[in-house]
Write a structure and sequence with these properties.
This protein is an alpha+beta fold. Among the domains are: 105 residues, Arc Repressor Mutant, subunit A (Orthogonal Bundle), CATH 1.10.10; 190 residues, Tex N-terminal region-like (Orthogonal Bundle); 92 residues, Nucleic acid-binding proteins (OB fold (Dihydrolipoamide Acetyltransferase, E2P), Beta Barrel). It contains 30 helices and 17 strands. The strands form five sheets. It has a five-stranded mixed sheet, sandwiched between helices. Strands 12-13-14-16-15 form a five-stranded mixed barrel. The protein starts with a helix and ends in an 8-residue tail after the last helix.
């Protein structure tokens, strides 16, 4: 099939024009990335968004792989001298890999089977004779094939060999396979049972000790759970369909007469079904359902990751970050507005040391010395106790927000090569505290340093296709990074590596160039970086920001290739580019139609004007300070009927997990998310969302908390809790006054 035909097929499937598909595929083939194409090539694609472009990319890759496989199959069959025009047309017409493999199966080189042994004994003509169903005396026909030299001792052995051949022929028939495949897809029952004697070891799979349901209706999370139990050799899984009905369907397709031939074929059908066909289709169905379950689980992970990466940033603030602990103390670090580590120490405000006064003095000294503007506390062990300790420091200015930060993955980062490279002289506790503080300031910039699978927002992520998972999560990270934009002069190489077209090697080159030559003054200076060619520059430039660059457009999402348009706009209005950015009335005078060209249309021009309004705007929501219920610190503090504020930490197909501040997330089952029916939890809640929940059940021993959002499970909102991410500062005199109240309890 030519690419043109593929374009029409994709266009039809996605309900867009073939011209859009053609243009998009061309851009992809030329090395364009999905973020670049969706943002800067709207005229070519007809303003397709990232989701549509990714769908085109995925489908064209699948169809091209299918076409490649068709070519290989045709060559193989032709080399055997068995390719007919009819078979060729069938192969060229198939639209799925499974149906292509069905057609190829009879011609596929295979290991020695019962059928091949029978053929070696010269019994294939007998099998064909029976399949033709014209000879009424099968026994007499079988006598002709008795040959002791070929180890066919009697007519029954001849008939057995013929049935072996027929069984294989029928099991490899494309139409028959499709019939049984549909039966499995539509009617199969999945059954799970515990392996006898392993009940105790399989306790976590207790729900599946005796379980059965329709395979078609089995949700992905349940299928993956049962498969995990099977993989751990604790459960036995079976797929079952109505065997009698399946055999009847095959007989209707194959048998066209009555008599001895029909009886022989019936025997062959039963044997072939049980020995060859059913196991093959069951395996295929298992794989197909696993792939579907993987895709759904990966999509859940991807949606959660996107929400987490796009969490509201506090912004460039000087931060005191604490990684809390009891016996080992709380690691404390001071970070400047760019996230640079200024100083670190350890305090011991909790049992067994309880050096509360000393810890208070250290915290206040750090705040005064570095004019700190926010306090971040990791949500791990001793988190709530540390939060209470900080809030109990009477002289600490109330203008400094105290924020509990989800530290999932911080320990992974602190022990990683990335962290060792960044902080070679500090131990893992310091690195972990730094990560906690930085992820408050800018979650996206910090979380890209961690393997997404370690962030804790997935569903059975270790059970799904790992390559597919990695590719999907990388796409999500790239989409988020490019959607927000990256500050060129402060970004880490990990963050830069996700920018359109760059990658890790070039990101390293950019950082090294920056370290050697100082901050970039313009985007064009990027072309001096080793291995930065014109094509890569085209792909990445629009997503990189230079806040104090020579050209004011360098801090915006306006691409350098369209700077001349903005310059023309300014010239026509007899003003500077800075004037266009700063004066709304001037922008209102711009007549976009005057700047339309063959390559630049209204979509791009509208994007340019929007960027001039707020250059480099952050698309993420404003930060809101959140606080847990101050009376709840441990799971034993919970009781049925309590109404609590919480933060959604994970969304799955079966509900949402919510942190209510007791070091153990509670589950809001999908049935408890709303007063109305919910088919997809993601339609109701998102990771990072602030919600109200009601406690419906608490199992302290098993550490299980059941929650409900029915009734008033609305998002927690508080106007006074909003924190500006850029302009807000704190008066250092407030801190000086507060410290004076300590009456010199600590020295320097």
């Amino acid at each position: 099939m030519s690419d043109v035909k593929l374009f029409f097929k994709i266009a039809d499937d996605l309900n867009i024009s073939s011209q859009q598909v053609n243009a998009t595929v061309k851009l992809l083939d030329e090395g364009g990335t999905v973020p670049f194409i969706s943002r800067y090539r709207k005229e070519a694609t007809g303003s397709l968004d990232e989701v549509q472009i990714m769908a085109i990319k995925t489908e064209i890759e699948r169809l091209r792989q299918l076409e490649s496989r068709k070519d290989a199959v045709l060559k193989s069959i032709e080399s055997q001298g068995k390719l007919t025009e009819e078979l060729k047309d069938k192969i060229l017409a198939v639209e799925t890999l499974s149906k292509l493999e069905d057609l190829y199966l009879p011609y596929k080189p295979k290991r020695r089977t019962k059928a091949t042994i029978a053929k070696e004994k010269g019994l294939e003509p007998l099998a064909q004779c029976i399949l033709e169903q014209k000879n009424s005396n099968v026994f007499d026909e079988a006598l002709k094939f008795v040959n002791k030299e070929k180890e066919v001792e009697n007519p029954e052995e001849a008939l057995q060999g013929a049935r072996d051949i027929i069984a294989e022929i029928i099991s490899e028939d494309a139409v028959v396979r499709d019939l049984i495949r549909e039966q499995y897809k539509k009617t199969a029952i999945i059954k799970s049972r515990v392996i006898r004697g392993k009940e105790e070891a399989a306790e976590k799979f207790e729900d599946y000790f005796e379980w059965e349901e329709s395979l078609a209706a089995c949700p992905s999370h349940r299928l993956l759970a049962m498969r995990r139990g099977e993989k751990e050799d604790l459960l036995i899984l079976d797929l079952i369909i109505d065997e009698e009905n399946a055999l009847h369907l095959i007989e209707r397709k194959i048998i066209t007469s009555r008599g001895e031939c029909a009886e022989q074929i019936k025997e062959a059908i039963v044997d072939g079904y049980k020995r060859l066909l059913a196991p093959s289709i069951e395996t295929e169905t298992r794989l197909f359902r696993k792939q579907l379950a993987d895709e759904k689980a990966i999509q859940v992970f991807a949606d959660n990751l996107r929400e987490l990466l796009l969490s509201s940033p506090l912004g460039q603030k000087s931060i005191l970050a604490l990684d809390p602990g009891f016996r080992s103390g709380c690691k404390v670090v001071a970070l400047d507005a760019q996230g640079k580590l200024l100083e670190e120490t350890v305090i011991y405000p909790h049992e067994p040391q309880r050096k509360v006064t000393e810890a208070e003095n250290i915290v206040l000294a750090f705040c005064a010395k570095y004019n700190l503007e926010a306090i971040a506390i990791g949500n791990g062990t001793a988190s709530r106790e540390t939060e209470q300790f900080i809030k109990n420091i009477d002289v600490l200015p109330k203008t400094i927000p105290v924020i509990v930060v989800n530290e999932a993955g911080a320990s992974v980062y602190s022990a990683s090569d990335v962290a060792r490279e960044e902080f070679p002289t500090y131990d893992v506790t310091v690195r972990g505290a730094v990560s906690i503080g930085r992820r408050l300031a800018d979650p996206l910039a910090e979380l890209v340093k961690i393997d997404p699978k370690s962030i804790g927002v997935g569903q059975y992520q270790h059970d799904v296709d790992q390559t597919l998972l990695k590719n999907k999560l990388d796409d999500v990270v790239g989409s988020c990074v490019n959607g927000v934009g990256v500050e060129l002069n402060t970004a880490s190489k990990q963050l830069l590596s996700y920018v359109s077209g760059i990658g890790l090697t070039l990101a390293q080159n950019i950082v090294e160039y920056r370290n050697e030559h100082g901050a970039f003054k313009s985007r064009k200076q990027l072309l001096k970086v080793p291995r930065m060619g014109e094509k890569v520059f085209e792909q990445c430039a629009g997503f990189l920001r230079i806040r104090d660059g020579v050209n004011p457009l360098d801090k915006s999402a306006v691409h350098p290739e369209t700077y001349h348009i903005v310059e023309k706009m300014a010239s026509d209005l007899n003003c500077s580019i800075d004037d266009l950015i700063n004066e709304k009335e001037l922008r209102k005078k711009i007549q976009l139609q005057n700047y339309v060209t063959e390559t630049v249309g209204l979509p791009t021009l509208k994007d340019i004007v929007n960027e001039l309004e707020k250059p480099g705007r952050d698309p993420r929501k404003s930060f809101e300070v959140f606080s847990f219920d101050e009376h709840v610190h441990e799971i034993k503090d919970l009781h049925e009927g309590m109404r609590l504020p919480g933060i959604v930490t994970n969304v799955t197909n079966f509900g949402a997990f919510v942190d209510v501040g007791v070091h153990q997330d509670g589950l809001v089952h999908i049935s408890q998310l709303s007063d109305t029916f919910v088919d997809d939890p993601n339609k109701i809640v998102k990771v990072g969302q602030q919600v109200w929940v009601n406690v419906t059940e608490v199992d302290v021993k098993r550490k299980r908390i059941a929650l409900s959002m029915k009734g008033e499970g609305i998002q927690v909102k508080s106007e006074k809790s909003k924190v500006k991410s850029k302009e807000q500062t704190y008066d250092p005199n407030d801190m000086v006054s507060a410290l004076a109240a300590l009456k010199g309890k600590f020295g320097k």
